[in-house]
Amino acid sequence: MEGSCHTRTPRNDYGRLIATILVFCVLAAAGYALQHTISCFLLSWVIAYLLDPILVSAEQRGIRRFYALGILYIVLGVLTVFFLAFIVPAITISWNSFVLDLPIYIQKLKQVGLEWKTRLPDRYGSDEIQWLIEKASNNIDAAAEKTGFWAYHFGTSIFFNLFNIVLSPILVFFMLYYKQTVIDTLISWLPDSRRTQIIDIANEVNSSIGGYLRGQVAVSIIVALFSTIALFALGVPHPIFCGFFAGAASILPFIGVIIATLPALFFAWFKFQSVAMLWQTTFVFAIIYFFEGYIIKPLVFKESMNLNPLVTIIMVMALGETLGFWGILLALPIASAIKITWGHFVRGNFRQR
Known about the structure:
By secondary structure, the protein is mostly helical. The protein has twelve helices and no strands.
């Protein structure tokens, strides 16, 4: 009897594991089918997650959550007016300049390819290299023809993002106002024998995810500001665009540092045609990411997630392809939550009664 009991438990555990994986697959498929709806919800959830500590601090000082929400929304309204009046026009001008210059950059790339082709010496292997240059040149022509379609597609995505921005404050308000009600409801659904244990795991996951999200947003803003200021000083074209891109790329683990420098190096090379300017731009980004990696992140991230690099890359790729930007942003928190929960499962905490 004891032997049979020992053999049934792992089968039951594996069944639960398979069921959990299937649930995640269904959720991923639903997320892919409802990308814009899920994107709006995730945007609201992240904003609510970032703002909730402010309300908790206000409640500890004796201010009711409803009144704290009203004060918070007044402050955010003033900041939004400032953002729309000063920041948005600068970003719009920078983006319009980038879109207008994009065909010029594409034609310059084609011209450089043709120059390389004419300068190529007649030696063994030159035919293959010329074939590669011709293929690259044809691809550049195709890219130039698709610029209009790309601009239209981007405009469509901007429309949905504006819809999300308009709807998000409403969702954020209700998420923050009914937070405790939702938590109490979810706790009441838990079995009494597991309630304390699940709450402890949820608090551990909440601490990990909250610390990461708040830290990553702070790091991205700092990198974007430093990059924009540095590129302004160097005279590199489109510094605001490159700065925002660098801040967004800092979300990517391992390869984000390399990707962040590519637009700045591209624009610096086309304007100055100087290797010295490329070295200066690279040096500036090296300094920024040195401070980001060795000073800013250790101060902002109080606890490390200690995730396996291979698991991290797989999660970023999978969720990024499924949910786009939000999948990339939430890949590490989701991986951390799975790791924490799986660690308790392996230690047998879920079998305790």
